[in-house]
Every structure is written in structure tokens, then in C-alpha cells.
Amino acid sequence: MKLFVYHTPELTPSPCTADCAIAIDVLRATTTIATALGVGAEAVQVFSDLNRLMQTSAEWDPAKRLRAGERGGSKVEGCDFGNSPLDCTPQLMQGRRLFISTTNGTRALQKIEQCPTVLAAALINRHAVVNYLVETQPETVWITGAGWEGSFALEDTVCAGAIAVGLMEKLGCTLDELAGNDELVGAVSLYQQWKDNLLGLFHLASHGQRLLRLECHADLQYCSALDTLDVLPIQREVGVLVNQSTLVAPVAARSVVSAQSA
């Protein structure tokens, strides 16, 4: 297995030729997606365009849908909430589909949506992602960070490093055997430096500071926790993520069904 890290959607090659691709937006889209599925959402459907989100979700029974929209860290008018995982309660999410569009994370998912297997990863569900990769053994894995409006993000890179370190521990392999590019080596180094103080790293990160200015202290604490949620968001059809445990058959053995694109 070879892992490749791309810091932003813009730096991710096209078309996606990986066997498995992973989108990371720790602050906060993929953390929110994992949390929503973990508390009972039927699925999460992602959109880079807010107008398309509104049009598609309008076709659903209002009792079976929720809309999450975020731009610049703040909630979008007309949506039920913004992009905080702390808004994802069982009472709200159970049995509903979450339609979500964010500044960065949904763009990362859209970039890799044509890959045979697409996952959403965050620090909170790192071990679920690692376990899936160990079980399925894809030859080539791309990790696409959401970044911030095209720029590098510390929090996404440290999560990529955490996934790589988890794989090295589970597989008993070396960094040299796993690394597909220099970015992966850098991600591992960042994680090894900060693994005991991930919240401290988030306070240094530019997007972490942006969220602190928006009084999102609890979000940073929640998003910086490692391995707290046994949930694997996996693409069932283009733009639609479900928890792997709800699938009848392994996604690796199924064809991706074309549907509403994010």
C-alpha cells in the first residue's frame, strides 16, 4: 500500500486514479459528517454549490431533511445550522438526510468523488479509517486535505499523518514502505511532533484561530480528539455518504452509482 497526501483539492491530480481516496476537513466538515452518521443520520449528501443544495433538498419531505450551510465559518441563511459537529444530536439527525455545503470540505469530497472508494476522515474517526484500509488493502490511497480556500491547513495534514502512523502500527511497515510522496512524510512528522497536544496545534492553525474568533472553542476541543467515534463515512453513490455499517455488502465490491453530484 502506498499513501499520497495532497494538501488541497487544487493540488490533487485529475482524474483520480487511486484505488481509495480519502477527504479530510477536520475543521469541520468531515468531523460533522462522521458525527451526523454516528448519531443516526440516514445519509449525508454533499454539495459545493449552495443553490444546488437548496434545489435538491427541496425535493425531500421537510421532516426527513436537514440543511447545513457554512461560508467563512458562519451559518448560511436558509439553512438549519452551520458546520458545527456539536449541532448533530440524535434527536435532530435520526433517520434524516443531512444536505451539507461548506467552504472547503465539500469541495475536497467533490474532487475525489469518481474514485472507486471514497471515505471521509477526521481525527475523531481515525481508527475506523485505518481499520478499513488494513482490511481492504487498497494498493494506492490518496488523501486530499480541504485546506482553506486553496491554502495549506495544519489540521488536515496532522490528520493525514495520524492515519499513516496508525497504518504503520497495524501493518508493521516502515514509513519508507508506506510513503508515496514527500507530503506524506511531512504529515507523519507533524503528527509525531503534536500527537500529545493536538488542541494546542489547532490553536496555532490559522483556521483554528478563525474559529476561536467566532467563539467556537468547544468545536476545536471536539474536533481535536483522537479515535472517539467508530464511524466510517463511505460514498454509496456520487455525493452521498453513509456509515459503512449500514451497507449490505462491502463497498469495495460494488460499483459506484451515478447520482446527484456534489
Write the layout of secondary structure elements.
Blueprint: E1 2-6, E2 20-24, H1 29-38, E3 43-46, H2 50-57, E4 65-71, E5 74-75, H3 90-93, E6 97-101, H4 105-111, E7 118-121, H5 126-136, E8 140-145, H6 154-171, H7 175-178, H8 182-194, H9 198-204, H10 206-213, H11 217-223, E9 233-237, E10 240-243
Parallel strand pairs: 1-8, 2-7, 2-8, 3-6, 4-6
Antiparallel strand pairs: 3-10, 4-5, 9-10
Condensed summary:
This protein is an alpha/beta fold and 262 residues long. The chain is built from 11 helices and 10 strands. Strands 5-4-6-3-10-9 form a 6-stranded mixed β-sheet.
Global Rg: 17 Å
How is the main sheet built?
Answer: 6 strands, mixed
Q: How many DSSP helices? A: 11
Oligomer: single chain
Low-confidence stretches: 248-262
Mean pLDDT: 91
Number of strands: 10
* Strand content bin: 15-25%
Q: Which H/E pattern describes the elements?
A: EEHEHEEHEHEHEHHHHHHEE
Helix-strand category: alpha/beta
Distance N to C terminus: 28 Å
What is the share of helical residues?
A: 25-40%
Describe the strand arrangement of the main beta sheet, using strand numbers. Answer: 5-4-6-3-10-9
Shape summary: globular
List key phrases describing it:
single chain, 262 residues, alpha/beta, 6-stranded mixed beta sheet, 4-stranded parallel beta sheet, 11 helices, 37% helix, globular
What does this protein structure show overall?
The chain starts with a strand and ends in a 19-residue tail after the last strand. Helices cover 37% and strands 18% of the residues. With 262 residues, it is an alpha/beta fold. The longest helix has 18 residues. β9 and β10 form a beta hairpin. The C terminus is likely disordered. The strands form 2 sheets. Strands 5-4-6-3-10-9 form a 6-stranded mixed beta sheet. It has a 4-stranded parallel beta sheet with strand order 1-8-2-7, sandwiched between helices. α6 packs across α8.
